[in-house]
Write a structure and sequence with these properties.
Oligomer: heterodimer
Strand content of chain B: over 45%
Structural class of chain A: mainly beta
Shape of chain A: globular
Distance between the termini of chain A: 40 Å
Largest sheet of chain B: 7 strands, mixed
Order of helices and strands of chain A: EEEEEEEEEEE
Strand content of chain A: over 45%
Structural class of chain B: mainly beta
Number of helices of chain B: 0
Number of helices of chain A: 0
Number of strands of chain A: 11
Chain lengths: 112, 114
Amino acid sequence: QKEVEQNSGPLSVPEGAIASLNCTYSDRGSQSFFWYRQYSGKSPELIMSIYSNGDKEDGRFTAQLNKASQYVSLLIRDSQPSDSATYLCAVREIQGAQKLVFGQGTRLTINP
Amino acid sequence: DADVTQTPRNRITKTGKRIMLECSQTKGHDRMYWYRQDPGLGLRLIYYSFDVKDINKGEISDGYSVSRQAQAKFSLSLESAIPNQTALYFCAAQGSGSSTDTQYFGPGTRLTVL
């Protein structure tokens, strides 16, 4: 069973600071990585995908991938109270049906 | 977005009852998925389908069955509901091919089994 691990939190960050969310995965050959945001009681919403080592930036969000160390992270700059949510890391299996494997999620709270 | 819809949005039922959750998507995506979510456990895959004739079990398929009635419709059934099936259920759709790598989720169905 392929595993994706996240710190469940809660992670508390002051407004305006950088929030850093981390995820590790067990399958060394994985190629596709995703970050979803989920507000309480709502469905997951894709915010970032990353496929290559290094950083990928989209607005206030930056995804970082290090395949050698098998981790992927999400940085949120200038954190806003509206960023308070659970963030799910997902990794696509490289064999078989290539399903997404989700971590348990990190609950992030931005304090005004 | 894939415009994925789920019905019902909320359902309360009793132990032993049969219940069906329905999912539809309007973008013609080939792949559809059913997940359940429990607090602290993330999303766990129940069943998935890559086309009408292709149905596959996920990691927690026991106690569930599915039907892919058409490319756009994928239903999840609980033949005899039990209390530990109380959870939030999500349907997702995804296109095939490298340009459509994203899973889009429906709004969810909150199921309570008494």
